[in-house]
Amino acid sequence: MNRIMALAIGLASVPTTAPAQMAMPPLTPDQLAFKALYKELVETNTTLSAGSCTLAGERMAAHLKAAGFADSDITLFATPENPKEGGLVAILKGSSKKAKPMLLLGHLDVVEANRADWERDPFTLIEENGYFYARGTSDMKAMDAIWVDTLMRFKKSGYVPKRTVKLALTCGEESTGAFNGAGWLAKNKPDLIAAQFAFNEGGGGRSNGKGKVITQSIQVGEKTVQNYTFETVNAGGHSSVPIRDNAIYQLADAIGRLRDYEFPVMMSDTTRAYFAKAGAARGDDLGKAMIALSKDPQDKAAEAIVNKDRSFHSMLRTTCVATLLGGGHAKNALPQRATANVNCRIFPGVAVEDVQAELVKVVADPGVKVTLLAGERRPRAVPPPLDPKIIGPTEQLVAKYFPGVPLIPTMSTGGTDGIYLATIGIPVYGAPGGWGDPDGNGTHGLNERREIRSVFVGRDFLFDLVKTFAETVE
Predict the structure, then answer these.
(1) Strand ranges (E), 171-318
(2) What's the CA angle centered on 202, arms 427 and 140, to 5 degrees?
(3) CB–CB of 133/125 below 8 Å?
(4) Cα–Cα distance, 6 to 204 (Å, whole number)
(5) C-alpha to C-alpha distance for 198 and 427, rounded to whole angstroms
(6) For position 22, what pLDDT does the model report?
(7) Among the listed residues 201, 193, 221, the one whose alpha carbon sits nearest the alpha carbon of residue 101
(8) So what's the pLDDT on residue 175?
(9) Which domains does the chain have, with CATH numbers?
(10) pTM assigned to the model
(11) Is 267's pLDDT higher than 90?
């Protein structure tokens, strides 16, 4: 998953006496059972290189069946071409024939983790200094475990929701170009996951790094992630007789022009609301500039101030950056070919072809070929509405759990599997609840961690969130 860095903003002036700040009491038997489930999921390796999402899905299915789910309520899936990249769909049927289902979405796969680089075994859940350490503790097996646990608690208690609640745990979110389970379900089993709306990763709170929750967010929209290839080709020759027409130099000039190019400011309903609300909470010069820009996206003075924050800069536009280079074939020969991967995060509603055309204009050199990276094309991002029927009840629950902490709608500058559900008409929202630290908690990096209180308070919050919407029938 890819979480929005903009949430790590300095809102320390916002007071809170949230339960999240209290010390964790001894765990109850119910919490210990959840912790064991979380541990099992975290310690099931689900990296693309050596793990198995299929195994993780099977293990979660076993827990659901032990809680009382029938075989007919659970669908385990995998393709012959990708036997280890499967997942599951579970369904808790509701009592209302009129109410449309809700969907809980989560990805089982995690980013690669090299044991030699980590201080601890990345696939052993370790408790230290108030944190759980391991790959996936934050992204996103805590939420996966909570979704499973929530359905188990419903089933064991005999609770029958008014609205059918569906759960989809899939693989492939962390590996662009690999098999993607959410995309496969949307294309091949749309009726199985059909829902009025879905909750996913991408939202959540941020602390001040010292246990104080300062903001909660609900993700409402995300960018499209798309890779492009810049390529130059030359006849080459002997390095002892260099010429100016050099594939590497030509590519370098193109990358330099990309570096100096700024995509124009764009605003969506979500980002406009974000800058207005987050700016008001700050109360400083940056906050004033955020408010001004939300009112007038053409305010260049305000934009200049907001652009100084890297994450805010990214929220305001499409961004493209060179991430990989390759070129040449011998140390003593002129290069015959040079390539660069350009990773773009495209503002919602903008087509990948339009960005490709803009990159061609930026490069301004017919000798530089700009192409979509084969096999990695993703759907166009379609932002869900700022629906008061979703935002309102969520805001009320945030106020209950985190008094004084604002709920701010955000647009992810990364990407989630929610983009695939939007293609079949399911608006996806990143749920708040748990929280992270300003440094990102090692997500996608070394020594990934999640505050223990965040996991358990998040568990209770998300349980109440799902139940609230399971009972809310129009």
Answers:
(1) 197-200, 204-207, 213-222, 224-233, 237-238
(2) 115
(3) yes
(4) 12
(5) 6
(6) 52
(7) 193
(8) 86
(9) 5-222+381-471 (3.40.630.10), 224-263+318-378 (3.30.70.360), 265-311 (no CATH)
(10) 0.89
(11) yes
Angle (CA) 448 453 454, round 5°: 60
Tokens of 241: 């007789």
- Give me the residues paired with residue 59 across strands: none
Burial class of 329 by CB neighbour count within 10 A (0 to 12, 13 to 18, 19+): exposed
Single out the residue of 140, 283, 122, 115 nearest to residue 202, CA to CA. 140
- Per the DSSP assignment, residues forming a β-bridge with 320 are 344
Q: What is the mean pLDDT of residues 201-210?
A: 91
**pLDDT at residue number 435:** 96
The beta-carbon contacts of 233-237 under 8 Å, at least 24 apart in sequence, are 233/336, 233/337, 233/367, 233/369, 234/334, 234/335, 234/336, 234/337, 235/336, 236/329, 236/333, 236/334, 236/335, 236/336, 237/333, 237/334
Q: Which residues have a Cβ under 8 Å from the Cβ of 318 and sit 6 or more positions away? A: 223, 263, 266, 344, 345, 346, 347, 350, 355
Please provide the average confidence, as pLDDT, over all residues in the chain.
92
Residue 324 CA to residue 207 CA, distance in Å, equals 34
Ramachandran sector of residue 203 (left: φ over 0; alpha: ψ -120 to 50; beta: rest): beta
Residues across the chain: 474
- Give the Cβ contact number of residue 234 at 10 Å: 20
Strands 449-451 and 102-107: unpaired
Amino acid 321 reads: V
pLDDT at 23: 67
What's the pLDDT tens digit per position in 410-454?
Answer: 999 888 999 999 999 999 999 999 999 988 899 999 999 999 999
63 neighbors 148 (Cβ within 8 angstroms): yes
How many Cβ atoms from other residues are within 10 Å of residue 291's Cβ? 17
> Structure tokens of 14?
């916002």
Bond before 140 cis per omega within 30 degrees: yes
Q: How far apart are CA 429 and CA 421, in angstroms?
A: 11
Per-residue pLDDT of 35-44, as tens digits, reads 999 999 999 9
CA 234 to chain centre: 40
Q: What is the pLDDT of residues 144-184, one digit of tens each?
A: 999 999 999 999 999 999 999 999 999 999 987 789 999 99
In single-letter form, the type of residue at position 241 comes to V
Asked if residues 402 and 394 have their Cβ atoms less than 8 Å apart, the reply is: no
Contact 155, 92 (CB under 8 A): yes
DSSP per-residue codes, 128-177: ETTEEESTTTTTTHHHHHHHHHHHHHHHHHT---SS-EEEEEES-TTSTT
